[in-house]
């Protein structure tokens, strides 16, 4: 059996944009075999946290750790090689490449470049039919989101970071996404999901963290957290 995925940890992260404090001391863990969710109103700092974990933003203070290793100073592409894969809130597939070519890029940039993992990812996301040879340009949002997730999975990641993976999906696609993410967690992947869809969070998450104004103001199992949202001053968790 493969070694379990390491825990990804954010420790006391502070981040700023110019003079604006976007993260004000955020600590959380993303353990293997679990789905960790982050919710909160627009502007709370969810994507900023995500960028610090993925390596696309350098925090002003604090650390990001993968297992015992301090990876705070590592570039995003180096983290991808270590097994931290991500998707983007704004989709980032290459429009001129086919779906399958996009997914192959994920394997080339990932922890392991394994053609079998490319086929597995395409199959898992229902992209192994004729759509695999179509250029990504002009495909519907739902298909692009699936292609982007397949690309992240193609590199056999141990940690998966998803920023608003259900945005633009219809309810059938959201159900399919939930099944895929639960299967990945059951296989031992560590998942962090930033998500507006609270029904999806309630269905998926083992632990929910509520962010407001750059801080985590509540953490716990979804049943408890989603029931008490109104009393947290977190306002609407939707967009
Ligand atoms: P969320 O994902 O929770 O909606 P973000 O992390 O995107 O929030 O943004 C947190 C805050 O930081 C917001 O007030 C946003 O306007 C600000 N912000 C985000 N990105 C930038 C940036 N590149 N430059 C300046 N301010 C930014
Ligand atoms: Mg965001």
UniProtKB/TrEMBL annotation:
The chain holds residues 697 to 935 of 935 of the full protein. It is found in: Cell membrane. Residues 8-238 form the ABC transporter domain. This is ABC transporter domain-containing protein.
């Amino acid at each position: 059996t493969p070694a379990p995925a390491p825990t990804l940890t954010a420790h006391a992260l502070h981040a700023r944009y110019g003079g604006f404090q976007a993260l004000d001391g955020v600590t959380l863990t993303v353990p293997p075999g679990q789905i960790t969710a982050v919710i909160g109103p627009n502007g709370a700092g969810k994507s900023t946290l995500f960028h610090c974990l993925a390596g696309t933003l350098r925090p002003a203070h604090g650390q990001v750790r993968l297992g015992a290793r301090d990876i705070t100073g590592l570039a995003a592409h180096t983290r991808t090689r270590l097994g931290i894969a991500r998707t983007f809130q704004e989709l980032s597939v290459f429009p001129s490449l086919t779906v399958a070519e996009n997914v192959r890029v994920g394997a080339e940039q990932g922890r392991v470049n394994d053609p079998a993992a490319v086929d597995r990812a395409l199959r898992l996301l229902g992209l192994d039919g004729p759509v695999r040879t179509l250029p990504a340009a002009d495909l519907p949002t739902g298909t692009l989101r699936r292609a982007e997730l397949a690309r992240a999975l193609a590199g056999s990641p141990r940690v998966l970071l998803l920023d608003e993976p259900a945005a633009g999906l219809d309810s059938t696609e959201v159900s399919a996404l939930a099944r895929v993410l639960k299967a990945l967690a059951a296989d031992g992947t560590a998942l962090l999901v930033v998500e507006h869809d609270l029904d999806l969070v309630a269905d998926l998450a083992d632990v929910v963290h509520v962010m407001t104004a750059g801080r985590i103001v509540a953490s716990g199992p979804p049943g408890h957290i989603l029931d008490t949202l109104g009393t947290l001053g977190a306002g609407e968790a939707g967009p």
